[in-house]
Every structure is written in structure tokens, then in C-alpha cells.
Amino acid sequence: MPKLVDHDVRRREIAQAVWAVIAERGIEGVTLRSVAAEAGVSVGRIQHYYASREELVRDSCRELLKAATQRFEAVDDDTTPVEKLRRLALGRIPTTPEFAIGTSIWLAYEAKSVDDPVIAELVQRGHAGGVQEAAALLSECGVADASAVALRLMATAEGLAIRVLVGGLEPRGATELLENLIAEVLPG
Prior knowledge:
By secondary structure, the chain is an all-alpha fold. The protein contains 9 helices and no strands.
């Protein structure tokens, strides 16, 4: 009987190997061979799913966005809009070594978006999704001009995340700054 393969699971495993290569060598270190070695599979297995390096990098970016969305949506339904907003904004600040690696991988995709229009669209969609979610939550909290406030909040969170990652700010300090901004923009 032939072995059944879940292609979505296989693609996620390959994406995780791409992320590991990016974390270790940067996005320029991603090759079919380096990803195959990281995943413990043959180059042919990678080529079965991806015709080119560009396709591989782009799909791994899609998978990262999907994983981030699923992680945020895993919040309990009885969580208040304020708690969800805090989780969304503060979730940008890398507070653990593992999270810092994830943030550096995302920043590698952002850098790649400068010369890859497909990745640029994915990155823009990721940013827009975060801002839209924040705007919806801020609106639920009664914030006037929720879209502008959401953009300010999420852009600040992303900037603070970079500062933490490059060593200009401790996670605790970034968290405090962001907590203060959240308190400032919420009514009451």
C-alpha cells in the first residue's frame, strides 16, 4: 500500500527548515541544497515542492505569516478587546531568545521585500493585517480614529522590536514603552 503524504505538513516542515537556514546564515544562505540538508531530505524532495529558490523563500514567508495569524487567533474567545490589543502589540516585542530568532527571520523577509515584489506584497499584507486587527480592537474599545491610532501603535511596536533585536533596548523597556502608549490611546 502506498504511503500517504500530507503535502501541507511537508511544506510546513520545509518552511521550518528555511527559517532555520535564515536564522543561521541569513536569507542569502537559503539554497535548495542548504534547506534540504537542514530538513534532512534530498534536494529532489525540495524540488518536488518548489521549482526555484525564489518560490521556496516566498512560500516560507507565506507560512510564517500563516503561523503568526494562527498563533494570534488561538486567543480565548472570552478575552477582552483590551487584552487582545495588548497581546497583538506586545507580541511584536522579542522577549525570549527564540522569539528574537523569529523576529530576525521576519526582518530578513522585510529586507528581501525591497527587491522581491511578491515578498513585498506578503510583508505589506502582514503589516496591514496587524493594523486592521488593532484598528478593530481599538474601535471596540471606543477609540476615535482607530485606524490612525492602530497604525501608530503597530509601527511603534515594530520599531521597538527592531531596537530590542539590535541591542539598543531591553525587552522590559520596550514593553513598558508600549504599555504606556496603549494606556495613552485607550479612553478613560
